[in-house]
Amino acid sequence: MNSYLTRLYSMAQQPSRRIVGLMSGTSLDGLDVALCRLHGHGTATRLELEHFATVPYSNEVRRRIREVFAGGQVSLEYLTLLHPWLGLLHGDMILQCLQEWQVAPAAVDLVASHGQTVYHAPQHQHQHPDFPLNATLQLGDGDHVSVRTGIITLSDFRQKHIAAGGEGAPLAAYGDYLLLSSTEEERLLLNLGGIANFTYLPRAGQDASAAFSTDTGPGNTLLDATVRAHHPMLAYDEDGRLASAGQVHAGLLTELLAHPFFAAPLPKTTGPELFGPAYLRSAQERSDTLTLGLADTLATLTELSAVGVAQAARQVFGSEPALAVYASGGGAHNPALQAALRRQLPACRFATTQQLGVLPDAKEAILFALLANEAVAGQPVSLGAGRQRVPAVSMGKISLPG
Description:
This protein has helices spanning about 5-15, 60-65, 75-100, 125, 140-150, 160-165, 170-180, 220-230, 240-245, 250-255, 275-285, 295-315, 335-345, 365-375; strands spanning about 15-25, 30-40, 45-55, 110-120, 135-140, 155, 185-190, 195-200, 210-220, 325-330, 350, 395-400. By secondary structure, the protein is of the alpha/beta class. One of its GO terms (biological process) is 1,6-anhydro-N-acetyl-beta-muramic acid catabolic process.
């Protein structure tokens, strides 16, 4: 038997596995690298986060990714070259982190690589008559990651979800359910990345068919793009200071919320392909706010993110949801966005996932490590029901170093 297959077989029977989880989101700020020790599998999974770092992308890396990011027309040659190049870059970033942490690559069982999403195309969004299906594309070839690091790598997680009838996102429901369910309270795990999404978790032990994940609309993607358009040297509105100095423009907010995505049934997925600068400009034209100041524009976009979350919560839980909400992602550090969420959902109790023992910035990287752990050692779990059903599949393509 192939020695790597022998190792996989042995690894599946170990009491724990050491896995590097990787995540690079639509904000393009860098690569999150989480070295996790995962004990057991399924609902008995126990996490130890040994190390975590965000390796920042240089301006040149961001420029290269933005050449193809959420674009309708791109160079096929450039896209083809970027796929292995990002795999090698991510492999080098893993090795850099392991060296800093004084961990030998041979001491790591698996890498779980999400890759870099460059286009997300659920059917309801692309509406292409020749392709009645969902699709998504992540770059950063898993074979290049595996050969570069010498570590067995699982990658391209979203394709199996789509193949089994899902939309490929959000995938957080699996990890959130296995790791963060509670017997004491219903929970909303709110991820405020480039796109905002949440996972609803009923009390542990109750019917898992009630659990589900959904996108709710833009999180930070429009905020960051708007800041960059006005101040190219700034990546984002640090601590929401610019937004806090502005006023919400009711007319612009109304036009932004007029998009049919916000009234669509749950669960649903979206991306910066929809919520990009063209979407904002169209709403500004309709509301006669093209000359609105930066602070007021950011205040309105911050309110949009909060309203998107609140409307989705009300669709499921009624007019006054009263849930324990635990935030993660970049928006968890934005006081302006947090204040807007509290205004929109006054009966909810807000905290970050730090209170649950999960570092908010590391959460998504951890969740992909958990998906890899389940693919190797666990059994597929089905969550939700009807449109909210998450298929029971093992996700991640396996790449061997040799």
